[in-house]
Amino acid sequence: MNCHVCLLDEIKIYCKRLLKATMMILLVKAAHTPLALQMATPKASARPFWSWLNAVFNKVDYDRIKKVGPDRAASEWLLRCGAKVRYQGFDRWQQDYNGLPTGPLGRYKIEAIDATESCIMYRGFDHLDGLKYLEEIRFNKCVYIEDTCLERLSKIENLQCSLRKMELISCGNVTDRGIIALHKLRSQMKAEENQHKLERIMYLPH
């Protein structure tokens, strides 16, 4: 009887240690996974929550745009969703939301956007309307980027004057319809003989 009791105690101790080790592994993996990626690839049971949170992150605050300017407001939106921005005259990419530069209104102009594995979606694209110096956009593994996003992008007048490079890689919700919209943007720019030409559209579906 005592042997059985001892064996059960050892099994309980082993199970507790195994559970603790498993939890530690899961915590370490979670700590090394970017928040935007966790939100962009949720498990089925958590999808409603993450979808709601992503929608909140993408909500446009028009009063905020008026207060701080389009570039600052767009920077806050993009970094909040896990993207990066590069400002005109700077080589370094800005990714830390809490480290956003401060200074006179309009000092920092967004020149490039890297939205790799971010959770930006159509709902937030009004932030792009006021960007006059944006030359490069990169969408890579963006699960919320779809045809309507690219159609919206192609209609932004400022981009018709400034955009020079567009990369679209492994965005599974984009179809030929979205690619056609980008080529229409390119055609519009050529027709208007803008100083800046859309030099490159790179599309890799997988």
Q: Could you explain how this protein is built, in words?
A:
- This is Distal membrane arm assembly component 2 like.
- By secondary structure, the chain is α/β, with parallel strands linked by helices.
- The protein has a domain at 52-90 and 112-191: Ribonuclease Inhibitor (Leucine-rich repeat, LRR (right-handed beta-alpha superhelix)).
- It has 8 helices and 6 strands.
- The protein has helices at 2-31, 35-40, 47-58, 62-68, 70-80, 147-154, 157-162, 176-191, and strands spanning 84-87, 93-94, 110-114, 136-140, 165-169, 200-204.
- The chain has a 6-stranded mixed sheet with strand order 2-1-3-4-5-6, with helices on one face.
- The longest helix is centred in the first third of the chain and has 30 residues, at 2-31.
User: What is Rg?
Assistant: 23 Å
Major sheet: arrangement of strands? 2-1-3-4-5-6
CATH topology of the domain at 52-90 and 112-191: Leucine-rich repeat, LRR (right-handed beta-alpha superhelix)
What would you say the CATH architecture of the domain at 52-90 and 112-191 is? Alpha-Beta Horseshoe
Largest sheet: 6 strands, mixed
Helical/strand content category: alpha/beta
Uncertain segments are 23-35
CATH class of the domain at 52-90 and 112-191: Alpha Beta
Can you tell me the overall shape?
globular
